[in-house]
Amino acid sequence: MKKNLKVIICITIISLLLIGQTIGVFADTYYGLLKYGSRGTGVVKVQQALKAKGYSLGAADGIYGTMTKNAVIRFQRASGLQADGIAGRLTQSKLFGTATVAARSATTATATDVYWLSRIIHAEAEAESYTGKVAVGNVIMNRVKSSLFPNTIKGVIFEYYKGIPQFSPVADGTIYNTPNADSINAAKAALSGTSVVGSATYFFNPDKSEGTWIVQNKTFVKRIGNHVFYR
Predict the structure, then answer these.
(1) What is the pTM of this model?
(2) Which of 17, 23, 137, 169 is most buried when burial is the number of CB atoms within 10 A of its CB?
(3) Domains along the chain with CATH numbers
(4) Parts of the chain with a pLDDT under 50
(5) pLDDT 10s digits, 18-41
(6) Which residue from 200, 204, 184 is spatially nearest to 113, judged by alpha carbons?
């Protein structure tokens, strides 16, 4: 009986600590209502977070101008929020809370997740830089999180559309090649929440494909090596 009581007390204490940490994260990352014309540290934090997610807005100068407002609107649209260009509590929670959620998800990543993610990264970006490899991993993870794609890494990789695989390594069999150390490390980084292309869900090599549908229907994020990324 005493032993069971101790276990219950320990679980309760741990739960309270976790709740406290979660509340602290969101409380510490809310800088008040920020909108066009706002200035200060909070604006800098919002600008830095947007830039880290791949949203271009110029310098993080602490001035909430047109470029910052437009970047917030793009982030809100990508996050399914009301696109009013105002960084309120919900927008900031999404903006600053993403890293926390990603880190928590990474702790539950399985060997299977690393297995398949490292293989698609290696097959698609073996000759790319480490950053380029992480970027490919980001696209896969962004698709997993999106309601428009399968909700598992393997499901995303092996998804077919009108009988055609979404990723060419599935068609040519290179998905089964053994990944190198960089590809494995890039997979682990993407799983842990490291992001270099923001909310991008598409990429292609312009030297090998025109990517007409993507170019006409999606928003350009950036180019890394031989790949261009879109969301």
Answers:
(1) 0.56
(2) 137
(3) 31-106 (1.10.101.10), 109-230 (1.10.10.2520)
(4) 2-27, 98-107
(5) 334 333 333 356 888 999 999 998
(6) 184
